[in-house]
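pinned: reference chain
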Amino acid sequence: MNILLINGPNLNLLGMREKGIYGEATLSELEENLVILAEKQGCKLYCKQTNAEHEIINAIHDAKLKDNINSIIINPGAYTHTSIAIRDALSSVEIPFYEVHISDIDNREDFRKFSYLSDIATNVIKGQGFKGYELALNEAINNNLES
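pinned: its structure tokens
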């Protein structure tokens, strides 16, 4: 089973930015932990972070066209609230995906409360910190095993 983790803009600054919201741990620490968790369950997790919308779209397309990805976990960052293009890419590939947000976007600024992805996501996990990624990974693995 192959799972793709995509982290969008500014998530490369985890551990340095807004520690009161995002915590002290780095993106590398998050990815290392998730790769180990996936391996323990017999899965391969591929990790990608980019600040560029087109690179996220290309990764989603490649997940279908050449990478044999079974599920996608995505924290689109600010693109959550702005990118119809990412929504269209996710709809087009028909791969189950899990939308993750470290913070509870429903309890932040008004503009963060709307997501272009939530209504088509398999599940949305928000406000659970890094644990939200683990929850999404476990759900993706369990759902793939059931199908």
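why pinned: The first strand starts at residue 2 and ends at 7. The mean pLDDT is 94.
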